[in-house]
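Exercise 7b. Backbone tokens:
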């Protein structure tokens, strides 16, 4: 169930010290989540047109080691918990065998007015799949 997403660190991603600026890890994991959802068959534009969007409800993050200009990183996204309206993902950023960043992100499905909604059909099986139910 783990999704892998490659990222190359560009100059614009770094600070004056040549290391990845801390806020850019959130951009990296956002791109990985978007790719993960797309690969699951969810068209977020179509979903929005039908009144449902995803929002980040919570993120817990740990910065473990620096990444630098031209590093090739891999973001690994693994669902860890789900209900009918939210999914919690563990996301890790690796540089080779070194874990440089990890986060736990909770996403909610909601209406354009900000009210909770059920997950789209492409993700509706997640609560059972994660809990191990058939």
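Sequence design result:
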């Amino acid at each position: 169930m783990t999704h892998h997403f490659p990222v190359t660190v560009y100059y614009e991603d770094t600070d004056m010290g040549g290391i990845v600026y801390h806020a850019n890890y959130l951009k990296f994991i956002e791109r990985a989540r978007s790719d993960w959802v797309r690969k699951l068959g969810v068209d977020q534009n179509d979903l929005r047109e039908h009144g449902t969007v995803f929002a980040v409800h919570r993120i817990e993050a740990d910065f473990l080691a620096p990444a630098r200009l031209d590093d090739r990183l891999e973001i690994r996204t693994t669902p860890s918990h789900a209900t009918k309206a939210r999914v919690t993902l563990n996301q890790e950023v690796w540089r080779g065998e070194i874990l440089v960043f990890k986060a736990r992100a909770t996403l909610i499905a909601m209406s354009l007015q900000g009210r909770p909604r059920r997950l789209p059909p492409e993700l509706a099986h997640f609560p059972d799949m994660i809990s191990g139910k058939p």
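Instructor comment: Helices lie at 22-39, 44-49, 126-131. DSSP finds three helices and five strands in the chain.
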